[in-house]
Batch of 4 targets.
Target 1
Amino acid sequence: MARQFGLLFVGTFFICQFVLMMQFLWRYVDELIGKGLSVDILAQFFWYMGIMLVPQALPLAILLSSLITFGNLGESSELTAIKAAGISLLQASRSLIVIVLAISFCSFYFQNVIGPDANKSFSQLLLSMKQKSPELEIPEGVFYDGIPGSNVYVQRKDVGTGMLYGVMIYRMNSGYEDAAIILADSGRLQSTEEKKHLLLTLYSGEWFENMQSQDMAGSASVPYRRETFFTKRMVLDFDGDFNMADVAGIAGDARSKSLGRIYHDIDSIAEFNDSVGRAYYMENKRMQAYGMALDKADSLRARREAEAGKADIDSVFGKMTGDQKLEVVKSALSTVRMRAADIDMKGGYTNRLNRNYRNHRIEAIGKITMSLSCIIFFFIGAPLGAIIRKGGLGVPVIISVLVFIIYFIFENSGMKMARDEVWTVWFGKWISTIVLAPLAVFFTYKANKDSTVFNIDMYINFVRTALGLRNKRNIYKKEVIIEDPDYARDAGRLIHISDEIEGYSNTHNLLKAPNPIRVFFRDGDDRRIRDINEELEEVIEDLSNTRDRIILNELNNYPLIATHAHTRPFRRKAFNIITGLVLPLGVFFYLRMWRFRLRLLGDLRVIRRTNEAVVKRIEEAFSEKEG
């Protein structure tokens, strides 16, 4: 068993690794195409990508290989032989449990030691690839700052022709105060042959540029230059050769750290975040205590008088001239905008700090949950394979994909919720384990107890019972009859059953709606119907030994009676009380029970008619025999 599982695990691991790499590759396909990357750079890209995806491929490979292993054993009846020898499923899979535990520890070691370095190298390589050909990296609708000294905005671009449309460029070679603004209808950005510069060709545009303001400090206004052009070419300094990017900014990513490094840095990050929060709090407190100073002395004096209770700010404002009011409103509006911008800037900065802290906690928990998923997936796959008993790559692949999709949805949703501070970090990262661990326990218990949890007939019968559906009798003529029926006694018993049914119908009004209080909150059972049904079944069982085809056909007309469903939803009183308290559920079962009462009324009428037909046929048979 261990040998078969090992061989399947190796094969399925490479299959899962390939599928995950192809899915991951589509995210970065734009970084690879058309950039002239050498073979060794591409080999490094795929190598680091494969190493990063190993922890994700291990659980899926364990799930698929365990499903196939136990499915093959069940399909070939080897599991039946093992259980017949008195060996339980858990005992038979002890060697596999040891192997899976070893794989789980290897997964943790991989994530904690090898994974961070691979992630750091991959991020550095990816950043370097993005910087190699910036003309392919310029996005649509946002400013791109990948070109030194410039911010480029492109409204639309044509990947096939390389044309850029709706171009806006901010050049800041001399600082923000003397930025040049270039607007063009279209343009084209290309690398020079030596890969050291970028050639920017613009069509139908304008160039706005401030003159050097620092040289005109005494001037009241700053002159600017405006140029209109039909075609303009610019050469931008840019090293387009492939150079590895600086790793300093990448090293701070939580994915590039081991578990020990993460917990070491979390304290420093939390302390720094708290210091920033305290600094912002004290700054806002000081600004709130002292207020904002006004430019005008009259306005400042008016405020002091208002604060001292000597004047009303509204009355002072009303006495001002129109120009003074406009100036005060502009000053107040400028102050509000400045404060709003300051708050937005501080809020964005604190959100980045908080996200960095949460990312470290998410990554720390993720290393543990990803390792535990190897164990959980084994205890899902092995029992399911033993229950379904289908080997090969058909049903196991379908089940593996469904289980992995459920895991993937909960894992990624939880991570995003935790990262966006919608859920707590521990809940967001543990939710996939919380959902799948009970399933693993349930399937393992059912498989160990030989439960038919996936018996389709069992679920069909449950649905038919819940909806009140039933089968018809199928009584056929027996080939060998040992003892003939006692026709005289059976006829008398059928007459007695008809009398009992008539008396029951007169006593119980089945057309009347039942009392809900009596149905859900009181004890009671219809023993009379149960006795009638038992006696009827005994007669049918005896008459099924007849050779008379007419009687056999009439026996198939007898309905199968539900002796309890017309009185209570459940046999246990506690279940009835709970159902009655839950209003929507109680209404469903109340209407269902009323339907059973009406059906019982029709069944009793059919039984009486069938009894008369059977008794009549017995009498005719006796008359023919005597004649």
Target 2
Amino acid sequence: MTTVTIVVVSIACFLVGATASYVLFKHGLRTKYEGILKDAEAEAEVIKKNKLLEVKEKFLNKKADLEKEVAARNQKIQQAENKLKQREMVLGQRQEELQRKRQETEAIRENLEVQLGVIDKKKEELEHLQRQEIEKLETISGLSAEEAKERMVESLKEEARTQAQSFINDIMDEAKLTANKEAKRIVIQTIQRVATETAIENSVTVFHIESDEIKGRIIGREGRNIRALEAATGVEIVVDDTPEAIVLSAFDPVRREIARLALHQLVTDGRIHPARIEEVVTKVRKQVEEEIIETGKRTTIDLGIHGLHPELIRIIGKMKYRSSYGQNLLQHARETANLCAVMASELGLNPKKAKRAGLLHDIGKVPDEEPELPHALYGMKLAEKYKEKPDICNAIGAHHDETEMTSLLAPIVQVCDAISGARPGARREIVEAYIKRLNDLEQLAMSYPGVTKTYAIQAGRELRVIVGADKIDDKQTENLSGEIAKKIQDEMTYPGQVKITVIRETRAVSYAK
């Protein structure tokens, strides 16, 4: 056997072995694959059964939930049906009751119609009887019904008037008993707690000089210096034989003060000529304006009043150079402010607002231009212009009853203004004006019928009126006192208050001979 043959045989054997091995391997692989496939199918069957069971369980749960929800809805529907049935029953009962009441109402209406018919008949019979009685009364009295009615109305009016007057007097007496004591206490305490100062009004200022030689220098050559000084200041300068004195005459105190200060500087400096006079007067006028503002500021600080408009402060400062009936206006305003604060605190009101209103109540007396309004109303306009509060503006305008009072500050300012002006020594009244006021009081009371004599006593604070007993009765006497008081209040101007006492008495006089 050759080598090739051996090799071929070897290869053939190898191929046979390899083929047999491949066949065996393939058979083994198919067997393994089939086992895996069977396992997978078995596992898939198990999973399928599990999923079916889960789905079936969820379905059963959903079904149970739906059955519960359906049962709940059915229960609600049943409850709603029950409520509707109850409402139907209630509505049916109400309808039956309404029908019954309607029938009762119809029966009552028919009954009322019958009764109204009976009433109408009785009313006609009553009116007929009343007409017959009126005719009988008219025949007996000789008066018609209208005339009797008028007489009765007049009688009732007179009786009501008398009773009303008596009732008013009783109320006033009772009010005086209860309120007069307390009012007097408050007013007296207010006056006692506030210190007062007095001042006298002057229209002239006396300028003192060291020697009469200065008079000639003030007059100047041919009077040119004195004419320049009068023209610059608006003050009349009287140079006469009065030793060591020159009189400055003007009704405006500010001008007199400017002239006095200018003269003092000119005399002290020694240079007196027209140009120098104009320069000094201009300088002094500025100084006085600054002093006015400073006085206003100092006054508001002393009184504790803040937030005033600068123009109001300037007006307050100008009060220093003004006077009213001999009373310095600034002192009067300060005194009124303090009185208002005390009285307001006694009455439980705001003392700061009262003090503010009291200080500003006379600002209308120092205008920069002459107004056509009374000083109270002009002062109210100024206060409104410079943004003061409405109650303070009303108190300023109403303190002389020239506008209606709308707050409790107004009567307090009015009373304190009267206290400050009416206290002894506060103001100087001209004798002629004083006598004329007393005569006017007496003549006003004499103008009433039945008055026989009148006497103004206590410096015009009381008016005694004597009436004839045969001309006026007691009721008319009470009415007369009130009428005279009202007329005096409406027509006259006076400080404080005036007491009117009407006296009616019967005197029997006989003589033993």
Target 3
Amino acid sequence: MCGIVGYTGRSEACPILLDGLQRLEYRGYDSAGVAVGADNGKLEVVKVKGRLEALREMTDSGRAVHGRYGIGHTRWATHGEPTAANAHPHVSKDSRVAVVHNGIIENFQELRQSLERHGVVFASQTDTECVAHLIDRYYQGDAVEAIARALARVRGSYALGILFRDEPGVIWAIRKDSPMIVGQGEDGSFIASDVPAILKHTRRVCYVQNMELVRLEGTDIRFYSLDGEELKKEFTTVEWDADAAEKGGYAHFMLKEIHEQPKAVTDTISPRIRDGRINLEELGLSDDDIRGIRRIQMTACGSAYHVCMTARYVFESLARIPVDVDLASELRYRNPVLEEGTLLVVVSQSGETADSLAALRYAKEKGIRTLAIVNVVGSSIAREADMVLYTWAGPEIAVATTKAYSTQLVACDLLALHFGLVRGALAEADYQAHVRELQELPRKIERLLEEKERVQWFAGKLAARQSVFFIGRGLDYASSLEGSLKLKEISYIHSEAYAAGELKHGTISLIENGTMVVGIATQADLIEKEISNMVEVRSRGAYVLGLTSYGHYAIEDHDDFTIYVPKTCEAFYPSLTVIPLQLLAYYVSLAKGLDVDKPRNLAKSVTVE
């Protein structure tokens, strides 16, 4: 997830690009850059590591770079650490082509190897640079043909802004599965990832569809198919204010990020599944290494800890590897036994969580191999771990994690399936069935999001509650932990999660008339027991929300309201049950008039113990 902006017209481009990037910095903030075309056709490229302010200083707020057309980029790293060399725009030999990119090129490694065999020398570690060199290779004066031939070789998602040195004043743009809009102003035209980048200059926009190619020159905007046929497109007028536009029209970043989960999950799993098989070559783990793992130790904080609790069930079920889970703040203080053959897995969104980083360093001191599951390329945990599996969720702005959590879940699923196959714990047919279901998760998440109004209606019943209890068994207990945390951290309602079988060991004494209980029941061999627990609390006056999968309709006889999720493999239900739980927390907080994105006393990344 990165931010793209482009401008061509009668004004100086660089100040406009910087202003647009400032409004897109929430999409990425580890590096930034611009490519501006001068009247003589030369492309001047300026890019820096760090936040946009560094680029603003280097260009004297745009006054030091002259030209009336250009493209800019603010980066959220996916391939290559945050450095000036890896910042966009990327250029081909002799700066004939400049490209900015939002998305992921899944087959960039094979493209890079092919281009290197033809003598291309790369200046960065990024996937994007391949696109610049490919387009340059095919360019013989026809931009449409060059772009079409290059993208025919590309797999992945992309929104691209492209400059050709030999076409002064012209910007080309195209997208596939990553957002792109064009805007038409009085003195020029624009491309951008989101509306906020151009709202200061125009409200007249057109949303680019998949595989539509756009040519912009001054105020002239033309749309083409990849075979060169010109397309007719309708422009619309944006009515949002600037604040709403930054959130993509959503009321809060949290709701926006909840809705971004299908794409975030797709971006995390899709590049790692090739021809129906999981490929984790990026880890550098051989099959013998995987077979030699005797135990997995997982550690994390907050929601990432709940991912680990879920992953324990998944690893032990699918890969038959024993798994221990510790809060990172507790791991090194209990003097754990970390024996040879142990793999430490650290999960963190930011990659800077102080306790998790300390746990990682502790394990390394003990000579234990470490694997990090993080979202931020080049973060401290990513740099210090022996292996890294990145979750490509893009930046999260809301304090309460949603899409980062969901991508961490599927990253663990990928590992467990791969380990299970290599270790012979998972039959080939079962492996293939699970991989297919993993690929179906984004579509099923979308289906749940389409039904959010039912959750919103029910949320009104929770707003006045003093306490809420979440119960579940097995994987559903792990999901209960996350559902409870989401509710308490943004609604300030006292909320606890319990393994349902523990109710009679004390917790049931807290149930009284009107107490809200959320019962999660997706595991087939445990549903009857979970329903029995729901009957117990309901008979004592609890108001019960049942959360289960389609087909388990008997639950309706024992709850007061039911939410259904689509069927999937039992190991993957947490990826689906978390969606209504996130929505429930969001709408309860909204009903109470609270600051959803910035709950009191909390920070996005905890970098102190």
Target 4
Amino acid sequence: MAVRRDPIDVTLRRHGLGVEVLSSARSLAEKQGIPVGEALTRVAGVDAKALANALSDLSGLPVVEEVPDEYLQPEYVLELPLTLAREVGILPMYLADGQVVVGLADLSALSALDDIRVLLGQPVRPVLVPADVLQNAINQSFDKASRNVSDVLDDVEDEDIGGGDDLLLDGDADLLDDPNEAPIIRFVNALLTQAIKQRASDIHIEPFEKDLHVRFRIDGVLYEEIEPPYRFKNSIVSRIKIMAGLNIAEKRLPQDGRIRRRMGGREIDLRVSTVPVRHGERVVMRILEKGEVFDLDRIGMSRETLEIFRELIGRPHGILLVSGPTGSGKSTTLYSAIAEINDPDKNILTIEDPVEYELKGIGQVQVNPKIKLTFASALRSFLRQDPDVILVGEIRDVETAANAVQASLTGHLVFSTIHTNDAAGAFARLVDMGVEPFLVASSLIGVLAQRLVRRLCPHCKVRYSPSDIELHDLGLQRDAIRGAVYRAVGCEECNGHGYRGRVGIFEFLPASEPVKDLIISVADAGRISRKAVELGMKTLRDDGIRVALEGVTTFDEVLRVTREDVIEV
């Protein structure tokens, strides 16, 4: 009689791993609520596909190595708790020959098949799926199955919205988890989930005399999303405050906090701000997704601009400024620059307000005015930390500007942002702050002004011929158009907006000798701009036209974001 051996033990022996590895994997599985098979891949680097094939040899079950999108049928997971799917490593996928094919991470999940059969009311057929592939499929499937916030609102509108302890449930649960939570928790979770799925950057919750409005900022534009019942007002705000660790009893003062949650396995950070207004408390949540990839090649610079910019960020000292209004992508550009030059032989320090994204291998400090930790004071301290590169979140005052200049003149490369309408305005702004013109000229190596324009949705954009009025507004001749020009339409893929995502347009002004001469002579921003254009600088409008002619955005978008930035030559 053959002795049946533990399949996990067999796999360990095949990989030359001992019993202590299995013990560590089981401990991790219990702690994080994941299958033992997946824990093994994390603890010992066991190949997930090899493990699935080893389990297949022992059980006779087939292996499905990939789970394409069409395998994921949301209706099969609606009744299945996300925590159960993750912990057991099981996912009902698609119907084949009258049976629901169910993916398993390892053979221990076989015991849950009867429960799945009862939940679905259909026969099931198990298959083995590599643990990492299955976990991704579980997250995607629950994401697809998550309900629209309007549907959740219809469900909870007639329920007792509760309060007190009802608002404290769920701890650190996934936003897609338990559909049986208290009504307000379900509503807030659905609201956050929908905002994330629609790629919103901000959620606005605004109380008025008789109405409560919720708006999402998507690709830089605010859209009305939903109007919850007015009686939900205090409960929604209290729930968000609890999630952010704020004082729910304090309704007279502004408060700031942070929410850290998971959605379908993704780490999501939300920066929360509450402000007392006439009819209650106004809440704005900024959505920051962890794991953001910062790459200069992806932000939209032209080849020529990117080449010069890369040369400047490789210099040993000087100040490089990025200018533009709030929400124009300045932080993303600077993070991308720092990510590119981040090497073990460089000491890089940042002072930010607040720290939005954590960068590996970089010392990041958040300002705290309550203890007098400001941009200026931190910058002074940084000079004693032997830095090579310093990022200052924003130059707001003469003290910060003077310290940044001093740092650059003593052999450090300094990155920062400044609020000016164009690149030339940054030079004049520093002089207006009180920095000596000759110090500005000797320390500043370049200024990058930028805006964000919305990308056309590739599924519904339509080619057209621009009108004479459009061309006149852009200062563009018809014979300058080479190739297709598109306009926005709107479809299901882009929620009817016609756009999906954003890309940068840039105006880059290196501090050349003619520009430095103008700075020393205290020339105004207009003269510096005109000289820069003579020397070949492309304005924001010029770069926007380039992006539109490449079929990435529309002339309407270019006009919308650059209407105030035209330079008269």
